[in-house]
Structure formats: C-alpha cells, structure tokens
Amino acid sequence: MGKLLVTGASGFLGWNLCRIARGRWDVCGLARRNQNQPQGVELRRVDLTRFKDIKENLQEIRPDALIHAAAESSPNFCQLNPAASHRINVEATFNLASLCADLGIPFVFISSDLVFNGLKPPYSEDDPVCPVCIYGEQKAEAESAVLQRVPRALVCRMALMFGDAGQGAASFIQPLINDMKHGRQINLFMDEYRTPVSAANAAQGILLALSKTNGIVHIGGLERISRFEFGKLLRDVAGVPNAKLNACTRQSIEMAAPRPADVSLDSARAVALGFEPGPLREELERLACVQELRNFVT
Predict the structure, then answer these.
(1) pLDDT in tens, 190-221
(2) Which domain holds residue 54?
(3) Among residues 235, 186, 196, 190, which one has the least CA distance to residue 219?
(4) What is the CB neighbour count within 10 angstroms for residue 252?
C-alpha cells in the first residue's frame, strides 16, 4: 500500500477520507486538534500556517500522495475574518502545493461549488469561476495558485456534503435533526439549490479521481434540490413528521456572506471515471440504518 497524507483529518470530509481510504492506503492525518481521530490512522497535530512545521512533517512522512482537505470552510467566518481565513485557505494551500512539487508528491486540493455565482447552473469544470463571497474567492484563488505551481495537481470541487461526522465534527444535517427532534423552528431556503452528496460517496469520488486523472473534477450528487426540499426529505427519513420546517428566502435572513442561488454541479466527468453517487433518500436511509447520526439524534 502507498502512504496517503490527509490534511484536516479530524474534520468532516477529512475524517471520512481517512476511513474510506483505510485498507487501500497507509493513511496518516494532519489536524489542528487531536480529536475525532479516525480509527487506525496516525494523527499528527500541525498548524498548517507554519511553513517550517509542514515542511518537516512532509519530509518525515514522505507520502505517496497528499489530499489537502483542511480549510476554514464557514463562509460567514471568512467574510468577517478575511485575513485569518486567507492564511489557511490560500497561503497554506500554496505552501503545501509547492512543497509537494519540490518533493514529487501528487497533490489533491479540495475546493468548493462556491467558486460559482449561481446564475448559470449546472456548472461544469470548464465554466468560468465567479464567486460572490470571500470564501469562494479564496477557493478560486487557491485553485489558480495550485494549478500554476503544480500543473498536474488534482482539484476536486465539492458539492454540499452530508453524512457521518465522527466524534468531533458535524455536517449540517446533525444539528437539523436535533432541532427537529426538539421541536424548534427551522428556517430553510426555498430559493437556494445544490447537488448534495454524502461524504462517503464524496470520499470515494476523490480517491477514484486521484487514481485516474488530474486537473479539475466536480464531485457532487445527481439530484438538484433546494435546502427546503432537502429538509423535508431528511424529516421523512428521520421520522419526525411534525418537524417545524419554515420555507424562507435568502434575502429574509441576514448573514455576513452573500449566498449564490444555484451552484448545482455537473459531475459527468467524475461519473465517466466510475463515480457512483447514491440517490439522496437511499443515502440518508443508509445513514439512519447504521446509526451514523447517533451523536446528535437524541
């Protein structure tokens, strides 16, 4: 087995990447905190904004590939803290890519559907980026920097993800189900559309793309759905028929970061490689059946 290094290994996507890659790779993870450690994975605590630290770890680990999943991924945080988020989302990304180029390590950068403005979906890999928020701007800037420094790098643009989050992270569905169970009103946008994909499917798609291609690849589900419709589907699968779901518009709720209307991804390239995202209902039912929502459903 080759050695795979995953940054952000204690986060939502990173944790799922580690658990999916186990068995096919000897997996090592880097994280800001030593919590939510994937079983069977060496986890090292590293500050990715410290160039000396990441260089020393790369030279010591000498991975056969690196997947950079670490990020400051809250659009609202990035909007309010552009300098701090730029250090991790752009500067640390470029430093990692440069080190991988120098050491001959294949590099995978995890990007986002929020590099698009939401006006002309669905988006393919060839569509021009035009972000509306600082987080999207930072991801687009990092994409460009990575591909200039490492022309054969792989950039995976991820759709909205959901799924198991381990012990110390969360996807957006766990708090939703908690609110449903406790009878709280939940405001969900009826005018914001995405192509959600389970984190397990997403991790499989990333690893598949790593083994087969480079350049930009979109990793999303096959169903375009609004936040409100997704909430209704989640309500049905979770068995909370009386959940208080309120359909609202993006303009009705004040947030720091602007939100694009529809950043649905066209994932045909990934599907041609063998990527098989599951139907939303089936993926949610699978999560429920194996109690992967256990930490938040009370």
Answers:
(1) 999 999 999 999 999 999 999 999 999 999 99
(2) 2-164+196-223+265-278
(3) 196
(4) 11
